[in-house]
Amino acid sequence: MARVTIPIGPQHPALKEPERFMVTVEGETIVDADVRIGHIHRGLEKLFEQRTYLQNIHITERICGICSFTHSTNFCQATEYILGVEPPRRGLYLRTLMNEFERIHSHLLWLGVAGHEMGFDTLLMWSWDDRERILDLFEDITGNRVTHAFNTIGGVRRDITDAQIQRILHTMDIMEERTKAYIQVGLNEQTILKRTQGVGILTTADAKRLCAVGPRLRASNVKYDVRKNDPYAAYGELPFEVITSDTLDVHGQLVVRALELLECVKMCRYMVQNLPAGEIRVKVPRKVPPGEAISRTEAPRGEDIHYLRSNGTDKPERLKVRAPTLANILNVAHTLKGANIADIPLIVAGIDPCMGCMDRVLILDRDKESCKVMSAEQLREYSIEWYRKEAYR
Amino acid sequence: MTPIESLIYMLVFPGFLFLTSYAFFCQYLDRKLYARFQKRVGPPFIQPIADFIKLLAKEDIVPKAADNRMFSAAPIVGLAAVLTAFIFIPVLALHSVIPSFEGDLIVVLYLLTIPTLAIFLAGWTSGNPFGQVGAMRAIVQMISYEIPFFLALLAPALIVGSWSLGRILDYQLGGMWLVIFAPLAVIIAIVTLQGKLERLPFDIPDAETEIVGGPLTEYSGRRLALFRAMLDVEMVVGAALIVTLFFGGYDLIISFSDLPWYLPVLLNAVIFFVKVLFIVGILALIKAVVARYRIDQMVSLSYRWLIPLSVAQIVFIVVLKFGGWLI
Questions:
Q1: Dihedral, CA atoms, A193, A197, A200, A204, nearest 10 degrees?
Q2: Is residue A84 assigned to a domain?
Q3: Is the omega angle on the peptide bond into residue A300 within 30 degrees of 0, that is, cis?
Q4: How far is B53 from chain A (nearest CA, A)?
Q5: ipTM of the prediction greater than 0.95, yes or no
Q6: Residue A173 lies in domain
Q7: Chain A: nearest CA to B189, how far in angstroms?
Q8: Within a domain: residue A112?
Q9: What is the pTM of this model?
């Protein structure tokens, strides 16, 4: 059968953000896949270098709309490492609590998106309705639903009251009940099983070779979780299991995420019931001494890395962000090969991609096989040149 | 029937004018129920008509790569076919006006096949890769659901011993609804009707997240409006066919014989259309509780389960008939 190359993206209804997948198909089977990233580069890393540390907390939150809190946690942690300060225990607990709320809402969001990709819109509507409860909790505690402005260097900015603790416990009861219902649906609904089982298989060896992270890695039966393997914030004191699945496919990811939801609920209950008393933050100086630090967190989508270098001023010299999607996009190109056209959306959505987090400018010249990073001035020249040529095409 | 009466029958009631408004109402009901199942509010009553008028007013584009004549003809032919199919379904309890003849069931089934072909041609000639993939899927899907659909609708014809919708209806008016003898066939007919209408779990040809708009990707403006109307009317015709064949058409056990002649006719028509709404409700429920199948899974479901089951139903009826348990 003839080979046809189908472009998936940059504009495609399956992709919520612009990214390009070129898939070569024979009939309905994919024989080759290529991923091109870089369609929504936002120049954030450059921006970090021109703002103070306090301003940067708010910019890091805007790296991603879903895992906003984990990015700001990461940045605050890296700064705290260089400063050598340790936030008070109550502050760390609250920070961890928010991180787990974020995981609950992100996993519910993924469940809905996966449902939508396999044509199960009812699952989308129901799980996003439940997600609203977590967003309401966020609003209750931090004042904001998406970008919370809750983290700060040296702790968190707001304390919680006993009434709020009661509301959290109440919501967690509902969450547990709803999650169990979703696990029932995910494990028993025939059409879901048909669409997810055996789709997007990534073997353990491949997952390690391609540096997969997060639920994708754990669905490939690798017991790795930054929260357990390199505990940060209050995770060292919390009781929880690292969930893995040995089915290696999209259904495995569904199971991992659904069971992680239950673990999150367990952790949140433990945290609010054993919340230490005391201060929530320590005062830190405005200027950060020269040094460098790497901070790792387990974002809902996987391991998130921030590298920070300071130069003694109140602005960082360099902040490098390695968002989880950048690590996972490699295995998408791999798992797409041999899959069915109908499975593309599900495989891509399987890693819970966040293209906005991931994109960086890197000019790859395929003919000369060279790659270079461009400065703002060069980019401007390049764009002027490009559009001048465009006019005569 | 006089020519004037025929014209009214075709164009006003229950033909074109009434049928399209009723189809829009069914679309509203379908969307509203679907929304309520999903904890949404759903569209207002006027929404389907507003959508239709809006599409009529929009710019109508024919892509350069498309075959102009085929591209324009496909929606008109499809809509005409489903509108014609409804003429043969007995809605009014007036035997003099039902245009029934031996074999009109086959005509209706034939006319109901044309929309799928129209969609295939629309996608294939639109020159869009998504359209072509969608068109191929539509055809593959058709050869898998048409067989169980036909076999399921063969069951009532076999019980009555006639290919005429009118006679199948008469049989039910005098005795029991055929759903009692052929429950399996009803289920299969409803499931395959979902495939025919390209709705979940069989909306594979226009799977939004995979191939954008499927065969209708390149359509816009009034041609798209006609295609939408075609799918709505097709849903009504399919549901009406199931009601006529299995649920006694306009029959409702109660007798209206002591009323003036026109009232029973009117009441019977109302009963018929309410029954159709129930079938539409079932279709909406199915749509709400399942995920989409893949094309290979759809074919295997059809050939492994639906066809053997419908054959088993036929065998069961044949045994009943020759055993003398069925009059």
A1: 140
A2: yes
A3: no
A4: 25
A5: no
A6: 54-337+345-351
A7: 19
A8: yes
A9: 0.84
Q: DSSP secondary structure string, B29-46?
A: HHHHHHHHHTT-----TT
The pLDDT score that the predictor gives to residue B7 is 83
Residue of A335, A359, A355 lying closest to A346 (CA atoms): A335
User: Which range is least confidently modeled, A324-328, A346-350, B103-107, B251-255?
Assistant: B251-255
- For chains A and B, what is the number of CB pairs under 8 angstroms? 68
3-state per-residue secondary structure call for B149-216: HHHHHHHHHHHHCCCCHHHHHHHHHHCCCHHHCCHHHHHHHHHHHHHHCCCCCCCCCCCHHHHCCHHH
Distance CA A296, CA A235 (A): 13
Query: What is the model's pLDDT at position B221?
Result: 86
Q: Give, as one character, the DSSP assignment of residue A304.
A: E
What are B66-89's pLDDT values in tens digits?
A: 888 888 888 999 999 999 888 888
Domain segments of chain B: what residues?
3-323
Cβ contact A28–B296 (<8 Å)? yes
pLDDT in tens, A2-34: 787 877 777 777 677 788 888 888 877 888 888
Q: Which residues of B touch A14 (CB under 8 A)?
A: 209-210
Distance CA A259, CA A262 (A): 5
pLDDT at residue B279 tops 70: yes
Identity of the residue in A4, A118, A344 whose CB atom sits nearest the CB atom of B292: A118
Triad A120, A124, A126: Cα angle to 5°: 115
In this prediction, residue A391 has a pLDDT band, given cuts at 50, 70 and 90, of low
Whether A170 is covered by a domain: the verdict is yes
Residues of B in contact with A28 (CB under 8 A): 295-296
φ/ψ (deg, to 5) at A356: -60, -35
The CATH number given to whatever domain includes residue A179 is 1.10.645.10
| Interface contact A118-B291, CB threshold 8 A | yes
Contact B293 A121 (CB under 8 A): no
